[in-house]
Amino acid sequence: MKPIIRTIAALLALASILLPPADLAAQRLSFIRDTETENTIRSYATPIFAAAGLNPSDVRIFLVNDKQLNAFVAGGQNLFINTGLITTAASANQVIGVIAHEAGHIAGGHLARVHDELRKATAEQIIAMVLGAAAAIATGRPDIGTAVGAGGTNIAQRSFLAYTRTQEGSADAAGLKYLDATDQSARGLQEFMETLSGQELLSTARQDPYLRTHPLTADRISAIQAHVAQSPHSDTPPNPEYEAKHLRMVAKLRGFLESPSVTLRRYPASDTSLPGRYARTIAHFRAGDLERALTEVDALIAEHPDDPYFYELKGEMLFERGRPAEALEPYETAARLLPRAPLIRVELARVQLSLNDPQLLEAAIVNLRAAVAYERDRAFAWRQLAIAYGRNGQMGESSLALAEEAMLLRNKAEARFHAGKAETLLASGSPGWLQAQDILQQVNRRDD
C-alpha cells in the first residue's frame, strides 16, 4: 500500500464469530499501527485498567481496521478494538465505556481457558489461533498499516469469543465500577448499548459483530440505566482533553482510511477546527497534492511547535514521496519530542538508513535499539537493526538481530543459524553472546 498505509504482511483467517459465513472469503482483516491513535486509546484505558486491578502495561491494545462496531479480548490480556467503533463513537466517553466493559472480561478471567501459547503470541498470531487458521507472518512496518487476510474456517457462533449472558452482565457491573472509581460517567456506555439495541431486530448478517459476540438483553440495558440514574458521577462533564484527542484521532483515521474525496466532503474548507485541518492535510497528501499538504502541515506545526505528531506526518509525507533528506529533520524533531515512541524511532532509522550516510549509522542503531527495547516483538525493527549493524561492520550484532527476527517469525532453522553465527562472532560472556545462547536454548527446547 502507499503513503503510511502499508502492509504488515500476515495472512489471517476470518470466522463466523466476526463475519457471516457467506462473507468469509470476501472480507479482509487489517491492523492499524499509529503512535497517536495508540497513545490516545492508551490514555483512555490506563486509569480503567488500574481500577480493575490490572497492570496497564501488561494489557496489549491492538487496533483492527474494520468499519464494523466491535471490540474483544483474546489470549488473556489482549484488547482488540475496531476502527469502526472509534470513528462511530460520538465521544471519548463512549469508547471509554466499551474499554471498561472489556476490562471487566479481562479482570473476570472470562477467557481463562485460552491456551498459554496464545498469551505469548503477536497480534497476528493471536487472531490466527483464535480463528483456527495458520498465520504466515512476515514483516511489519510502523505507522498506519494493513495486514491482508484471506480464507476462513467454519467456526461456530458460540465459540471462542462469544460470551455468555452471565459473563456480559458481570462485565457490565465491573465496567460500571471502574468508571465510578475513575470519576467518569457511565452515560457513554449506556449510549453505546442503546445504539446496539436498535440492531437486535436486524438479521444476524446485518448486525455488528459486537452484538453477536456480546449478547445484549433488556436486563443489561436496564441495569446500566439504573446505575446512571443513581451514580454520583453520571453528570460529571467529559474530560476536555480526552474529547479533544478523540476528535483528532477520528479525523486522522478518517483521513487515512477513507477516500480523499469522502474526507474532503466530511471536513470542508469551512471547517477551520484543528481536526478538520488535520484530516484535510492527510486527504490532500493521499490525493497526490503533496505541496498543498506540506503547506497545511507547516501551518499546523507553526501553531503547535511542540506537537510531535505533526512533525511525524510531515516526515512521513516527504519520505513516502521519495524525499528522505527533507524527511530527516521532521522525524528527528518528532523523536526528540516523543522519545518513547518506538514506531517513530523505527521510521527515523529507516530514513537514516535510506540516506546511505555512514555518519548516520550510529544514530540509526541507537533509534532501533530503543525501538526494540520498547517493543521486542516487532520483527521489522529487528530486521532494520540487523541491516544497520551489518553496514556498520558489527556482524555479530547483525546476526543476533536476525536471530531475534527469526524467533518472532517462528523460523527455528533461521534462528539457530543466526544465533550460532552470533555466538562465534561475539565475545564469550558478553551480553550479546549470552543472548545468542538463550536463543539457541529456546530453539533446542522447542525441538525436544
Give keywords.
alpha/beta, 448 residues, 21 helices, 10 strands, Zincin-like, two-stranded parallel ribbon
Counted beta strands: 10
> Spatial order of the strands in the main sheet?
4-5-7-6
- Portion in strands: 5-15%
CATH architecture heading of one domain: 2-Layer Sandwich
Q: From the helix content, strand content and strand pairing, which structural class follows?
A: alpha/beta
What is the radius of gyration computed over CA atoms, rounded to a whole number of angstroms?
Answer: 23 Å
Shape: globular
Fraction of helical residues: 55-70%
Q: Can you tell me the CATH topology of one domain?
A: Zincin-like
**Average pLDDT:** 82
Residue stretches low in confidence (pLDDT < 50, at least 5 long) are 1-28, 113-118, 129-161
- Note the gap between the termini: 41 Å
Q: What is the number of helices?
A: 21
Superfamily (CATH H level) name of one domain: Metalloproteases ("zincins"), catalytic domain
Largest sheet, in brief, is: 4 strands, mixed
CATH class categorisation of one domain: Alpha Beta
